[in-house]
Amino acid sequence: MSNPFDLEKLRLSPTTAAAVTVKQIISVPVHKPPRHDWIRVHPQEKIDVGGIILKDGDDELYLVDPDIAGALGDELVFFSMYPYINRVGVLRLWPVRLPAPDGKEMDWPRTSRVAAALAIEKWVRVAGNRSLGAYEVFQAAVQPPDPVLPELTLGEMVKLAFHDRGKIIRDLDHPVVKALTGQL
User: Fold this and answer.
1) What are the C-alpha distances in Å from 42 to residues 7, 12, 61, 73, 81?
2) What global pTM score does this model have?
3) Which residue from 6, 53, 74, 126 has the least number of CB within 10 angstroms?
């Protein structure tokens, strides 16, 4: 006699489980690509911003509202923020320093911008070379298919990366500004 209660008939197959699952991005890390990640940069999205980098172990980047940027003097650094994705689908924002107002530029940020431009069209790996004093870019010999980019706007990415973490400085009462000016 057959078993009237067959547990195997209730088990979800991996394809059924995948069909009912929706991935929601709830965090967007901000940092340069890890040296072993193959990446692609979003082809249309990029924003130039001002920010402050706190160097206390991990470099923490805070975005600064342009209305108060002038009050922060030499603490303010300018970046292009590039969304990028790696081969396993992790979305991140890559802050690449812009040239100084006087036009001077070091090779690290210059080669980062070159790497970001290449990563718009090809899968690349970006690795620092201290002897060279710059980044090296490696293209995949066999290019995988183009990535599937998440359906997030750049504004939504920045909100997840900065606003939701309290990392946008909108006024001079922000704790980072107070710490930098000796008020804390």
Assistant:
1) 46, 35, 21, 31, 11
2) 0.83
3) 74
CB 84 within 8 A of CB 48: no
How far apart CA 53 and CA 33 sit, in angstroms, is: 17
pLDDT digits (tens, 9 = 90+) for 131-176: 999 999 999 999 999 999 888 999 999 999 999 888 999 999 999 9
| Domain enclosing residue 169, as ranges | 28-180
Question: Which residues, including other chains, have CB under 8 Å from residue 32's CB and lie 6 or more apart?
Answer: 94, 95, 96, 112, 126
Whether 70 is in a domain gets the answer yes
Residue 9 lies in a domain: no
How many whole angstroms separate alpha carbon 180 and alpha carbon 74? 11
5 lies in some domain: no
What is the domain count for the chain? Answer: 1
Report DSSP state, residue 30: B
Determine the Cα–Cα distance for residues 29 and 161; give it in Å rounded to an integer: 6
End-to-end CA distance of the chain: 78
Tokens for 100, please give them.
């100084």
C-alpha 31/C-alpha 162 separation (Å) is 12
For tokens 């009050």, the residue is 71
Coil/strand/helix, residue 70: helix
Q: What is the pLDDT of residue 35?
A: 95
Residue 7 lies in a domain: no
